[in-house]
Amino acid sequence: MATCSLTGARRILLHRWVRQLGDSVQGPQLMDLPGNWQKAKEFFTKPALSYGQYKQQCVSLRIFAFSGICGGCVLSLAMFPPKSSYWITWSPLYWLSYAKQCFTGAAPPLFLEKQHGAQVAALLRPETQAPAPSDTDVSTVAVAPAPAATTTATSAASASPCSVASSASATVLAAPAKPRVVFVLGGPGAGKGTQCAKICDAYPQWQHISAGDCLRAERQDPNSKDGELINSYIKDGKIVPVQITVRLLHKAMQKGQKEGKTDFLIDGFPRNWDNVNGWEEVIGDSAEVMGVLFFEASLAEMEKRLLGRSVTSGRVDDNLESIRKRFATYEKETKPILEKYQKEHKVFKIDAMQSVDFVWAHTQTKLREVVPCQQV
Ligand SMILES: Nc1ncnc2c1ncn2[C@@H]1O[C@H](COP(=O)(O)OP(=O)(O)O)[C@@H](O)[C@H]1O
Ligand SMILES: Nc1ccn([C@H]2C[C@H](O)[C@@H](COP(=O)(O)OP(=O)(O)O)O2)c(=O)n1
Predict the structure, then answer these.
(1) Is any ligand 1 atom within 6 A of the Cβ of residue 191?
(2) In which domain, by residue range, is 248 found?
(3) Which residues bind ATP (predicted)?
(4) What is the ipTM for the molecules in this complex?
(5) Binding residues for a ribonucleoside 5'-phosphate
(6) Distance of alpha carbon 110 from its chain centroid, rounded?
(7) Could you tell me which of 8, 56, 140, 326 has the fewest CB atoms within 10 Å of its CB?
(8) Are residues 230 and 329 in the same domain?
(9) Cα–Cα distances in angstroms (integers) from residue 219 to residues 229, 246, 318, in the given order
């Protein structure tokens, strides 16, 4: 038996030797790239005469094929990044900005610093939500708290990561006591409105309230006593006095609550200290400000976008003169407000220079950080 297998092994060795099937190849070293390139080319141009030559050509070709495929994959990822929020969060391009944020203190905390209530009411069917408050004078009543109800969870609630209990019939405490607010800031034309619209399309509990839209609507109202004043401020790129703006925002939030909205994107607000103080005085503790989504883009890009928008927007301030004035106001008055929220670790920065879809993927990731119990 032993003799038999020895003979077999000998035969194989002999066979290899005859056909030159040894593992060693004679040719350029692995790192000799010009030599290997020459051999790789010969694979296509000069047919091998022996197996040894053929193997060398394959070995040389393999080096370039491997680098080519890997390089191609990396290039394609860079040129056509996946539309995934995870890719955006963890892609190599963002490592640098994350590293920087760790030192500048703008990075969001890794772990939750406070308890976040479950938005169970928003997850359940509309009939489980309490009746909304009536439209009341801004000076006397703040934004009505959302219902704090004890309710029986449906399967929809149990499917959500926010639900307190996972059983379909479990009793769940609806925690949110106040409407939640996310301020949306960024320069004129950064794409705030575009992304807010996408959030509201995707998540029905959110309502988009644009301070600029509210002011423009008020200006159109023939019965408004503030119309002329608003018009002149907007044309000059100045910030309208907060008493007017916050009243309109408050009214819009109350209307949204009546329609069952629990989360509000307040777009283009607060734009200066006057806005900050006015919000505190009128809304104050009756709404919970979760954070600020900040869309960052260069002035040149924003100018280009605004001029593009001016073709169809019909806005009195979408012209070069007003745009420049708005930029000046943004730099002088709004940036200090961002710094205030940055110190409170409430700013969630989004690179708005990319395409709409790319920004959207990043916006969703950031929204999850601002409002961790998002159904996203
Ligand atoms: N990521 C983007 N890339 C290119 N154009 C964009 C992007 N986001 C928005 N836009 C366009 O730029 C213009 C301004 O966007 P908008 O959302 O109205 O800005 P904002 O609300 O910040 O003033 C619009 O015409 C919009 O279609
Ligand atoms: N909080 C606010 C928001 C907007 N305004 C006024 C002044 C702004 O130039 C205009 C337009 O604001 P809007 O947010 O609609 O537009 P841009 O972001 O500047 O493109 O409205 C204001 O006075 N106070």
Answers:
(1) yes
(2) 111-370
(3) 189-194, 309, 354
(4) 0.97
(5) 216, 238-240, 268-271, 315, 326
(6) 17
(7) 140
(8) yes
(9) 8, 15, 16
